[in-house]
Amino acid sequence: MVTMDDVAAAAERIRDMVRETPIKPSASLSRQAGGPVWLKCEHKQETGAFKLRGASNAVARLGDVAGVTTASTGNHGRALAHAAKQLKMRAVICVSRLVPQNKLAAIESLGAEARVIGASQDEAFEEAHRLKHDEGFALIPPFDHPDVIAGQGTLGMEILRQIPDAATLAVPLSGGGLLAGVALAAKSLNPGIRIVGISMEKGAAMAASLEAGHPVEVEEVETLADSLGGGIGLQNQLTFPMVRDLMDELILLTEEEIAAGILHLAVEDGETVEGAAAVGAGAVLAGKLHAGDGPLVLILSGGNIDPARHAEIVEGVS
Ligand SMILES: *Cc1c(COP(=O)(O)O)cnc(C)c1O
């Protein structure tokens, strides 16, 4: 179980490890949404995504371990590497042979070891498990962990401190650590607040699991919102029930709608974000998300997009 006390303790614990990120109004999206829209600029977080909050809290809570490990090459891997470095701990990020050189370099530039092992993500994950069982490492998963959820919850606290009358929060949704933490914090502070989760139409494991009533696997499909891909874990303990109980509405977007969100945020609001972070804007532009009884806050969850891919979308070539 994760409680509001855990979130408040996390905020205290990670105060010097993460940035308080800016929040700013969007005039163009406010017109589209029929009420005030705010952009929570978490892509301005150090390492470029909110995941630093959960990783920092989890690492700071550890006792005596040989180091930390995970098998993520994306925003969680970067966050864990950065948090471990700040606390002078060893980090080993396990990756498969398929992972491109630039991603390995990014992990190593954060002071972590990128251990290339196996031909698939699953095999990389086995190495992380081996480090845990044989070498005394702590395996920090990307979402289904109470300290990770509590850390992400600090983002919900921060939003309500910045916009106390926020009526709706639009939250990008994958494994659900972000939504679970943010919803827990926001509803503790304002029980009437509306929490809207947003995923892509194809390959959204949480959406399929909610529909089935239990965690299920989905086929992974390539998507512009690459940080929203991947499963929720068939043995999911925390985020599945929390998302099920705390989320008020789920919106699914097409690839075109996600691209429109990226484009709009770049051109109208001057923000460079990755696909996962553009789903709130995409949903407003598609007419699927409106401001209700008060301010609507869109979480721009990350900015780690290949610059060439971003340029293609903004310049309209693909
Ligand atoms: C991880 C991630 C998400 C989704 O977070 P979950 O906790 O897995 O739901 C959304 N946006 C970005 C940029 C991410 O890195």
From TrEMBL:
Obligatory cofactor(s): pyridoxal 5'-phosphate
Record-level GO BP terms: isoleucine biosynthetic process; L-serine catabolic process; L-threonine catabolic process
InterPro entries: Ectoine_EutB (IPR014333), Ser/Thr_Dehydratase (IPR050147), Ser/Thr_deHydtase_PyrdxlP-BS (IPR000634), TrpB-like_PALP (IPR001926), TrpB-like_PALP_sf (IPR036052)
CDD domains: Thr-dehyd
Assigned keywords, A-Z: Lyase, Pyridoxal phosphate
Keyword Lyase among record annotations: yes
Start and end residues of each Tryptophan synthase beta chain-like PALP domain: 15-302
Pfam families referenced in this protein's UniProt entry, alphabetically: PALP (PF00291)
GO molecular function, one term: L-serine ammonia-lyase activity
NCBIfam families: ectoine_eutB, PRK07476.1
Alphabetized PANTHER family for the sequence: L-THREONINE DEHYDRATASE CATABOLIC TDCB (PTHR48078:SF6), THREONINE DEHYDRATASE, MITOCHONDRIAL-RELATED (PTHR48078)
Family: Belongs to the serine/threonine dehydratase family.
Protein name: Hydroxyectoine utilization dehydratase EutB
Protein source organism: Paracoccus saliphilus
